[in-house]
Every structure is written in C-alpha cells, then in structure tokens.
Write the structure tokens for this entry.
Amino acid sequence: MRRVFILAGLLAVLSHSEPAAAQGGRGGRGTPIKAGESCPPGTTEIRPRSCMAPELPPPSILDYRPRSTLVTSAHMVKTAKYPAIDFHGHPQGLLGTPEGLASMGASLDSLNVRMMISADNMSGERLQRTVASIRASEKMKDRVRVLAGIDFRNVGPGWAEKAVAQLEADVAAGAVGVGEIGKGLGLSTRKPDGSRLKIDDPELDPIWDACARLKLPVFIHTADPQEFFQPIDYTNERWLELALFGERRYPQDRYPSFETLMTERDNLFRRHPKTTFVAAHMGWHANDLPRLAKMLTEMPNLYTEVGAVLYDIGRQPRAAHDFFIKFQDRILFGKDSFQPEEYPYYWRVFETANDYFDYYRNYHAFWKLYGIDLPDAVLKKVYYQNALKLTPGIPRTGWPR
Ligand SMILES: [Zn+2]
C-alpha cells in the first residue's frame, strides 16, 4: 500500500520535471496556476491558467531585439515643419566660443530649430560672459537666449533679498526667464539647519513674486518619473534604466516620496497665481494625462514642456492627440539633452500619423511610438507661439504668422 503511494508521488514529480520540449504545443500540459496568480519565474502563460517555459534558453532583455515585420507608411521628419524654440536647452559648453555657437547653429539649421533657450542655471559673471559671447555672434545673436539660475543654498534670514537682487542683475544682463530649477529642489537641497528645503517653503516666496513682477517664466523640473521612486522589481517599467543608472533610484528611506514632491510643487503653483510656471517634462505626468489636464484646468498660470517624455506621448497617440488639442495654448516644445540626431523623433511623433516606430533610447521604453498627427495651427503654438507668448525677452521678428 505504502509503496503504491510512493510510486504515484514519483510519477507526479517526473511528469512535472518532464523537459519543456516534450510539453510543447500539447494543450493543458503546462504548469497550472490559480485564477489571478502569476506564472512562476522563467515561464509564460500559454493557455488560460497554464504556464510553460520556452524550450530554448531565453535571451536577456538586453539581447532580445525583434525586427518588426509590419509593413506600413513611414515618414522620417528631419526638419520641423515650422521654426521651433527649444525651451529646454542644455547646450553646455557650446555658447562660450564662436566655434561652439557656429557648430550649434549648423545643427539647429538642419532641424529648423530657430531659437535655443539655455536652461543651464547661469547667474552672475558666467551669465554675463555667455551673453557677451552670444551677442558677439552675427549669426546666432538673435537665436539664443538664457534663463537665470537661482542659488538655493543657505535659504534662511537674508537669503531672499540677496537672491532677488541677483535675479534683477541677471535680468539686466540679458536673462529672459528662470531655470531650469532642478530636481534638487525638493529631493536633496538642505537648509542650513539640515532640514530638507521644501519646494513650497515660504522663505522662497519673494523670489517667485519677483518673477511675476519681472515677467519671467519659471521653468521647473520636479522629482523624476514615478517609477524611480518604486521598488526595482520585474514589474517596474523602468527596470532597465534603474539597473543601468543607480543615481536615478530614490529609495523611500532616503528620499521624499513622488507624491510628497508633487504636492509641494502644486502648492507652489497655487500659492503664486501671478507667476508663470512651466513644468518641465510634462510634470512627469505624461503617463497620466488626466492628472496633468486637471492641473492645467485648475491653474491658469501653469504651462508645460515636452522634453524627454516622448516615449509617453507616443505610446498613446489618440489620448495624446486629444490632450494637445485641448491644451494647445499651454504646451511648449523642449528637448532637454542636446543631441541633434534625436529631435527628428519629436517631429515625427508630432507631425505624422505613422504607426509603431522606434524611440531613440531603448532603456527608456520597451514599446514603440505612434504619431499624434497634430494640425498645423497646434504645431505652430507648441513649436514657437506659446514660448513667445510667455517670454517677452525672445526676439519677436521673423516668425511665421
Ligand atoms: Zn533640463
């Protein structure tokens, strides 16, 4: 009797450890799971509630690069249909020398980017030197403008007066806005007593009021994609990026949460209705357009910018199209890191109705992009008219009507 049980148990073990190859294609032979359960690691669901391992060793996610066999119309767009203002420029070293400016100008010409706004947080002597270099360039003097940086170190008594005076000096030297206020504000910047400087700290209020008085848009980057604040497990859609770049992880024991930072940011926007804010990277809500729509509806002083979130715009072409139509007066073009070969991906998403094409950075997105096919009037607003409207310091002449 006992021996029979042992034999039955052994058979059951054998049938489960039978090589996957022998199970292939024969329905019902996989490892069963209960409704709502996930397949065990190394297997995939082949029939409802039945999981199986592939009979060949699977590639890692780095090595799996399927070639699409989709036959569909493809329109590469090398040059923007209308002249663009890159509101989120980081040309770094290129502005300081005639050669750097000339090389940037040649790249911008080939893309039809007419104006570069440098969001490199310049101030004081560095800003003056950069503006002098731009003004000395016959070709580029009307094609580059700079934003001023705010120094958030040592916020305490006397800080605001000094910061406002510096900002006024930077505007006199040629700054046309403020930014890019970096994610350090909120994530890491400390006050002299060691406490975290909150984005909505009232000690900062005079600087935001000064921006309203001086008619300076405030370009602000808060936090990072929400997945950077989540556990790095195999459900995290930014797993590869987080595994590649350790400094992008914000574990909860060392950093404020995504929602804490968003709450402080929204308090700031609400508390200063006369100040124009431009939330960089679509506020990191390009994956949650209903949330961004609610913010734009509730806060008339808020604008947003599309840099480095093309993967979220292009994966939802119908919702993104409708969003851009609805908020066409509130969205600015910006690219972030200056890589001339990457701009055409933006033109293609905005201007075409192409299906299923590659993004420029695989580690950002495990999916393809689709064009959102914006009408000409909306392209003009996103590419240059909205930036002109909020930034009196950008030269007004020469733009198409
Ligand atoms: Zn930036």
User: Anything to note?
Assistant: The mean pLDDT is 93. The CA atoms of residues 64 and 84 lie 36 Å apart. The pocket of zinc ion is lined by residues 88, 90, 119, 180, 221, 336 (CB under 6 Å). The longest strand covers residues 113-122.
